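During the no-cost extension, the postdoctoral fellow (Dr. R.K.) reprocessed legacy sequence entries with the updated structure-token encoder. One reprocessed record is reproduced below for audit purposes.
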Amino acid sequence: MSARVTLYTRPGCHLCDDARTVVARVCEDLGESFTEVDITTDDDLEDRFREEIPVTFVDGRQHGFWRVDEARLRAALGS
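Re-encoded structure tokens follow.
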């Protein structure tokens, strides 16, 4: 089973650390998994997300950026 949530991050990003904490908590509570992608390992991703990280995707669609709203993420995964 593939992860429903993808979290795009970069090393040293405090917002990414905050987002990871929320995403991990929500996914654990709901029995979902998530994958984390370091944008600095891919030039295309870095160009695309440079100013927006952290960026979350749910089921392959962009869900948000900068901050993760826990209630909104839970709602998206509940549907």
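The CA atoms of residues 30 and 77 lie 8 Å apart. The chain has a mean pLDDT of 95. The remaining legacy entries will be reprocessed before the final report is submitted.
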